[in-house]
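Re: that backbone. C-alpha cells:
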C-alpha cells in the first residue's frame, strides 16, 4: 500500500486553516510569532517539513496580502465613520436650514399681509388727498383762449372781472375775483396759443354760475371773445379719470342720453333706471350688452 507524502496532502485544507486563523484574530498582526497555531510556522508539525517551497512562498504572499487588506479595511472603517459623522452633521444643519426657511416663509407671509394693508391705506389716503385738492379748487375756473397782452400790465384780475360782467352779464359781489394769473410758462409767440388763465372767485357759488352761463352763451358777444372757453380747475389725476369716459360719453350723446360726471363717476339714466360707473371698461361692456 502506497504512502502519501506529507507535501502531497490537500493544499486547500492548509490554506483554509491559515485564512481561518487570520480572520479569527483581525486586530493581531499576521506574523509567524503571533500565530503559533498556524501549521506553516510551527516547526513541531512533521507534515510541514516536507512541504513544497513554492507553495510556502505563495502562502507567504497571501499572508502579506491579507495584512494589506486588513489595513485597508481598518482605513475604510475609519473613513466610513468620518463620513457617517459628516452626514449626521449635514442632517442637523439641514434641519436648522429648513426651520429657518420655514420661519422666513412665515415672516414673508406676514409682511405680504402688512404690505397689502398698507397699500389699501395708502390708496385711501391718496384718494382723500385728491379729494381735498379738488375741494380746494372749487372756487377756480380755467379760462382758455384769451389772447396775450390784451389786459393792462398787472391788472389781469380786473380785466377778467370786466369780461365776466360784460360778456356774461354777471355782476355783483358774488362774482368778485379774488386772484387771476396766467399759467407759469414762458410767454408764447404771437402765432401760438395763449397761456391758460387761472381765475379764483371769492365764493364757490360763482364758479357754477359762470360755467353754466358759458355753456349757455357759448361765447362772449360784447367783447367778441368767441374762442374763449371756461373749464373747471381739476387735479391731473381727476382729469385723467374723467377723460377715460370720453368714448362712452360720445356714444351716450349720440343716443341722446343725458350724462353727468361727479367727480369721476359716470351717471346717466337708462330706460328709467339710474346707472353709475366708476370704471370706463364696465360702462363700455354695459353699452355693448345693451
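Recovered sequence:
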Amino acid at each position: 500500500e502506497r504512502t502519501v507524502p506529507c507535501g502531497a496532502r490537500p493544499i486547500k485544507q492548509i490554506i483554509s486553516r491559515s485564512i481561518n486563523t487570520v480572520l479569527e484574530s483581525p486586530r493581531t498582526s499576521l506574523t509567524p510569532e503571533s500565530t503559533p497555531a498556524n501549521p506553516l510556522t510551527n516547526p513541531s508539525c512533521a507534515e510541514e517539513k516536507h512541504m513544497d517551497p513554492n507553495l510556502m512562498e505563495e502562502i507567504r504572499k497571501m499572508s502579506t496580502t491579507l495584512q494589506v487588506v486588513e489595513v485597508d479595511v481598518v482605513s475604510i472603517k475609519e473613513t466610513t465613520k468620518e463620513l457617517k459623522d459628516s452626514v449626521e452633521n449635514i442632517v442637523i444643519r439641514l434641519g436648522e436650514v429648513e426651520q429657518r426657511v420655514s420661519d422666513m416663509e412665515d415672516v414673508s407671509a406676514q409682511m405680504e399681509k402688512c404690505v397689502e394693508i398698507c397699500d389699501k391705506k395708502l390708496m385711501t389716503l391718496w384718494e382723500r388727498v385728491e379729494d381735498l385738492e379738488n375741494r380746494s379748487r372749487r372756487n377756480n375756473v380755467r379760462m382758455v383762449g384769451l389772447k396775450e397782452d390784451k389786459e393792462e400790465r398787472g391788472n389781469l384780475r380786473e380785466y377778467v372781472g370786466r369780461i365776466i360782467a360784460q360778456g356774461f352779464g354777471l355782476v355783483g359781489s358774488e362774482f368778485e375775483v379774488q386772484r387771476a394769473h396766467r399759467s407759469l410758462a414762458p410767454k408764447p409767440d404771437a402765432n401760438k396759443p395763449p397761456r391758460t388763465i387761472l381765475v379764483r372767485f371769492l365764493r364757490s357759488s360763482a364758479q357754477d354760475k359762470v360755467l353754466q352761463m358759458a355753456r349757455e352763451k357759448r361765447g362772449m358777444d360784447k367783447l367778441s371773445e368767441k374762442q374763449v372757453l371756461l373749464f373747471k380747475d381739476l387735479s391731473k389725476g381727476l382729469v385723467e379719470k374723467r377723460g377715460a369716459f370720453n368714448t362712452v360719453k360720445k356714444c351716450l350723446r349720440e343716443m341722446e342720453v343725458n350724462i353727468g360726471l361727479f367727480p369721476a363717476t359716470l351717471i346717466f339714466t337708462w330706460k328709467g333706471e339710474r346707472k353709475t360707473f366708476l370704471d370706463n371698461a364696465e360702462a363700455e361692456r354695459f353699452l355693448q350688452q345693451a
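The longest strand covers residues 177-182. Strands lie at 140-144, 177-182, 197-201, 229-232, 259-261, 266-270, 273-277.
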